């Protein structure tokens, strides 16, 4: 890591993993196997459960069942018109900075290192792999066979749709220390090759899902990896390409406080985060997570919002007239995204209903990866 000097499903499981504070989710703004090691920067092999090198991972999920028929009984002034709802499994890629500072710098309150905290949250989310297509890659690459041969600018391939492969990749360096650090030159952050690897993955899969997400988890700006271009500009360009070309939202989560007093690094990460429709509202576009709770929330929010949602297939003129119920229980609309439901706009331009707080638990209990018949939305009469 080289400092930049210039500017510029069960309810029990859910309750255990996601306390109330972690169930508050931001609405997205409108859009502007077999494991295998490989070099970053594009063209890598997708690693998937039961897959073989060169064939890609086994893709699971897809469009789920439609929402159930509603008789409009929740409308206060007579029967309304039901809205058609569908659900598809989101694809979520965790791109994890594996540099030395992530493994040696610790976070409050439990004094775990940054990488340990990030990887622990990923493991907490993996039980939802029946509802989401999870992928994982690290940068720079750690390989049991020895040093990275690309001057610390290589990244792993993507471990896709195989929780066991993802756990195995995580556990290789679960206990950061000399045994891990001696295997690689970790004083580098090859973010651009990692993003290129993600871009190539989504191009290969050619997914048409309405929800495709990248969580870029890092603690500093990208390093130059052989290109004459500014790595911040390069990273921002790839993030923008993911958004505008492939409808992939990239959340830039900055773990720890290393950049708080480094204006150049902060400006760089802000530029990168601002290139995506998932940017944080306000002048600071990236998501700052300086303690374990903030890391957990920054990671849980986009993942659980994409899982606990239903796409609206019909058009409607007046959102204030829409009522929602789950298994005949009315769910209030909550514009604060704390407990209830609210609208968001997907990257494909359609509206979606997203559930929060206790309503999120009800959604998970009443649905599975393919069926959402117990979820209803109705447009009430004037």
Order of helices and strands: HEEEEHEEHEEHHHEHEHEHEEEEEHE
Beta-strand content estimate: 15-25%
Number of strands: 17
Stretches where pLDDT is under 50 for at least 5 consecutive residues are 1-66, 68-73, 144-151, 175-179
Kindly describe this structure.
This protein is of the alpha/beta class and 382 residues long. It has helices at 11-17, 100-104, 114-125, 163-171, 178-181, 191-205, 231-246, 263-274, 292-307, 357-366; strands spanning 47-48, 81-82, 85-86, 91-97, 106-107, 112-113, 133-139, 159-160, 212-218, 249-255, 287-289, 309-312, 322-326, 329-331, 340-345, 351-356, 375-379. The chain is built from ten helices and 17 strands. It has a seven-stranded mixed β-sheet with strand order 1-8-7-4-9-10-11, with helices on both faces. It has a four-stranded antiparallel β-sheet with strand order 2-17-13-14, covered by helices on one side. It has a four-stranded antiparallel β-sheet with strand order 3-12-16-15. Helix 3 runs parallel beside helix 9 and helix 6 runs parallel beside helix 7 (231-246). The chain starts with 10 loop residues before the first helix and ends with a strand. Residues 1-66, 68-73, 144-151 and 175-179 have low confidence and may be disordered.
């Amino acid at each position: 890591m080289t400092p930049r000097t210039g500017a510029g499903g069960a309810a029990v499981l859910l309750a255990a993993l996601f306390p109330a504070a972690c169930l508050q989710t931001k609405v997205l703004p409108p859009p502007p196997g077999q494991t295998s090691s490989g070099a970053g920067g594009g063209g890598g092999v997708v690693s998937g459960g039961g897959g073989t090198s060169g064939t890609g991972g086994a893709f699971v999920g897809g469009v789920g069942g439609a929402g159930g028929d509603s008789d409009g009984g929740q409308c206060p002034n007579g029967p309304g018109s039901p809205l058609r709802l569908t659900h598809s499994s989101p694809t979520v890629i965790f791109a994890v900075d594996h540099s030395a500072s992530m493994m040696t710098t610790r976070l409050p309150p439990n004094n775990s290192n940054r990488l340990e905290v990030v990887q622990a949250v990923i493991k907490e989310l993996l039980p939802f792999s029946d509802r989401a297509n999870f992928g994982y890659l690290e940068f720079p690459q750690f390989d049991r066979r020895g040093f990275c041969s690309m001057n610390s600018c290589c990244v792993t391939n993507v471990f896709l749709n195989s929780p066991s492969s993802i756990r195995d990749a995580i556990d290789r360096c679960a206990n950061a220390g000399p045994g891990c650090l001696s295997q690689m030159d970790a004083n580098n952050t090859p973010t651009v090759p990692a993003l290129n690897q993600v871009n190539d993955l989504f191009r290969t899969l050619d997914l048409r899902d309405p929800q495709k997400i990248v969580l870029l988890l890092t603690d500093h700006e990208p390093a130059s990896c052989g290109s004459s271009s500014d790595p911040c500009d390069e990273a921002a360009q790839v993030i923008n390409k993911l958004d505008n070309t492939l409808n992939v939202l990239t959340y830039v989560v900055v773990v720890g406080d290393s950049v708080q007093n480094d204006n150049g690094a902060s400006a760089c990460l802000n530029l990168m985060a601002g290139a995506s429709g998932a940017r944080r509202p306000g002048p600071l576009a990236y998501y700052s997570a300086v303690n374990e709770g903030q890391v957990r929330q920054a990671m849980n929010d986009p993942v659980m919002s994409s899982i606990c949602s239903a796409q609206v297939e019909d058009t409607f003129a007046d959102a204030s007239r829409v009522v929602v119920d789950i298994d005949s229980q009315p769910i209030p609309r909550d514009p604060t995204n704390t407990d209830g439901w609210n609208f968001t706009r997907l990257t494909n331009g359609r509206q979606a209903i997203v559930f929060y707080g206790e309503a999120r638990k009800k959604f998970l209990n009443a649905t599975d990866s393919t069926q959402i018949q117990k979820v209803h939305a109705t447009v009430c009469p004037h």
